[in-house]
Amino acid sequence: MTSSWNDRFSPRMAHVRASEIRELLKLLDQPDILSFAGGIPDPALFPIARIAELYGEVLAEAGDQALQYSVSEGLPALRRWIAERMTAQGAPCDEGNIIITAGSQQALDLIGKLFIGRGDAVLVERPTYMGALGAFNAYEPSYADLGGDVPAGARLAYVVPDFANPSGRTMPRREREALLARATAHDLVVIEDGAYRDLRFTGTDEPSILALDVARSGGIEAARTLYCGTFSKTLSPALRLGWVCGPRAVIDKLVLLKQGCDLHVSTINQMVAARVVAEGYEDHLERLRKHYHARASAMQAALARHMPLGVSWSKPQGGMFVWLTLPEGLDGAQLLEAALAEERVAFVPGGPFFAVDPEPNTLRLAYSLLSPADIDEGVRRLGRLIEGRLAYAGSNVARAATGRA
Ligand SMILES: Cc1ncc(COP(=O)(O)O)c(C=O)c1O
């Protein structure tokens, strides 16, 4: 039966596959597992009490409007607030430059639908956010390394320039400028995924690529960058509230696509979010940054303490992720199986974060959900496992060298 369904699916479904890793990670909610797998916000930081009050207030004040259909581009009040913030951060714009999307994940899907034709090349980082690949895959692109030559037929460059998922890396300003120069030379649209941008806990802000683009091109209408933002990492992912900021000509098309997709984001959720952000969002962000900074510091200390020689890792200035590189020959996916079975610790192997030519000796550790004490214990277990694997590999090499079985 399954095979006849497969025959009926459109050819694009050949590119849409379940991630084995995601399937495996579904099994991870046993309480004794210390999990560095889920890159999700700490629920302790959700402003639950205030959000509960605001649903009451919104229903009392806006009444049936809160429960009614609303415009596809999103609530004017929320779009205006976002436009003012983007303006304050160096990309002057107004609400006509903003569409509210169901998380930034929907923004990636709509952008894929708008720009990617079958076989068009999309330039991505190595590694990149696997959810972006998941969104783009349905439009049947080919992928090329952002660091390599730009192939003929390249249309888009997708980047996560601040504290990237999964690498934790931040693109320095000169790299952002170089990317814009290349994008201009090859007429590429730049998709800037700013999912973690508000979560910088050390160092100084880099200008967004959109801000650099606006400065360079003379205004947002002349820019080639589409900035994707989200409230998922700062307020709550369940609100499903993200946005795209870009030239009106693009926003207008995205609005048409959104109409065809799901009409609009939940009216009441947008009303609540517009009120939450209007009252002390920056203070709220400060609290988040302190919280994640403590965890990131615990993670760095634990890695330095427990990882054997030959393992290296990134040192993020914000966000939720550290990227670990194991000595050649070790495989993140195999290590995960052993980590679950032997050490009751979980992470995401790095392979699926590569659009092409995966580097199997890599993995992603998220530090957003565990306490500093659990971070130390989890990294201790992981370090012990890797050390054991290295010793085993080393003894095999030694045995091979001496010709002993
Ligand atoms: C880099 C990046 N972009 C986009 C998303 C999608 O988030 P949301 O749709 O909740 O805004 C995520 C979520 O993990 C992410 O890490």
List keywords for this structure.
13 helices; four-stranded antiparallel β-sheet; Aspartate Aminotransferase, domain 2; alpha/beta; Aspartate Aminotransferase, domain 1
Description:
With 405 residues, the protein is α/β, with parallel strands linked by helices. The protein has 2 domains: 16-39 and 283-402, Aspartate Aminotransferase, domain 1 (Alpha-Beta Complex); 48-279, 3-Layer(aba) Sandwich (Aspartate Aminotransferase, domain 2), CATH 3.40.640.10. It has 13 helices and 13 strands. It has helices at 2-8, 20-25, 48-62, 76-88, 103-115, 130-137, 173-186, 209-217, 248-262, 267-278, 281-306, 332-343, 372-402; strands at 34-35, 98-101, 121-124, 142-145, 154-159, 189-193, 225-230, 242-245, 312-313, 321-325, 345-346, 348-349, 362-366. The strands form 3 sheets. Strands 2-8-7-6-5-3-4 form a 7-stranded mixed β-sheet, sandwiched between helices. It has a 4-stranded antiparallel β-sheet with strand order 9-10-13-12, with helices on one face. The mean pLDDT is 94. The chain binds pyridoxal-5'-phosphate. Residues 39, 103-105, 129, 131, 160, 165, 193, 195, 230, 232, 237, 242 line the site of pyridoxal-5'-phosphate.
